[in-house]
Amino acid sequence: MNCLNKLKPLASSAGMLSRTYAFKSDLKIKWVRPEKIPCYKPQKSGDLHPMRPIAGSELLKDFQNSKELESADDTVRAMFSLENNRRREMLENFKEEMVKRVQRHELDYGSVEAKLGLMTAQIRSLQEVMEKFPRQSAAKVHLKELIDKRKRFLRYLRRWDYRRFEYVLEKLDLVYKPYPTHFHWITRKDSLRKLTDIHCDGIKSTRLQSYRELLESQQLDFLAKKLANLEFIRKEQMECKVPVTVTDGNKQIQAVKKQYEELKEKRKLLEEKTHEEE
């Protein structure tokens, strides 16, 4: 028994040594788990604007073009206004407005565009309800079903008539957010691996850029030295009375001279530009 007690600290120290991979790395990379956004929120559903506030003085849907109410008393008009009626009447006005944005003609209520406008009005109304009463499970389930149904309709319209699909998105202030093709869990290990790769790529790109700038700063001196070496080789060949391979009209010398002059002119223009900016 005493021998086992003596071996316990050794085992714990061995376990600590074997788990060094789980310690924090020297790289200053911090990962924060992203906030989970419910699917019925506007950020996930794709609704860019909420349900617009409707003025209470607006008349009901069936009485907006009534000639009798135009000459009626203020008390009578107030009875047919939205502020003195149920919220359902206000929603009916909003539905009519959203459908009229995309309908093909005045009596169009059955096309795909009209159905999308109707569903968008219902979705934004339910989103407003969920903001005030987030524990209404029945409204939440109905809202999720409507969002999924609208996605299916948008996918169908996108497949068969892309121009009309873009038109509907613009008129209804929507962003199409399809389901991901491959689902994967967001884990700390995978996220840290990606962040480490991004960090290493950033270090590599900065070092390559600094090395490129160093080489470009030495390029002018290198070309001048290369021209001097070619001239020296030509002079030595002429003095030794051997076949001269480097001549004044040689393509290699002409190319080096041209590159040297262009680079020199470019450096001069850059210096003038920086001087003017200062």
From TrEMBL:
Keywords: Coiled coil, Mitochondrion, Ribonucleoprotein, Ribosomal protein, Transit peptide
Alphabetized Gene3D superfamilies for the sequence: S15/NS1, RNA-binding
Annotated Gene Ontology cellular component terms: mitochondrial small ribosomal subunit
Sample GO molecular function, one term: RNA binding
Pfam families in the record: Ribosomal_S15
Residue ranges the record marks as coiled coil: 246-276
Superkingdom in the source lineage: Eukaryota
Stated family: Belongs to the universal ribosomal protein uS15 family.
Protein name per UniProt: Small ribosomal subunit protein uS15m
Organism: Aedes albopictus (Asian tiger mosquito)
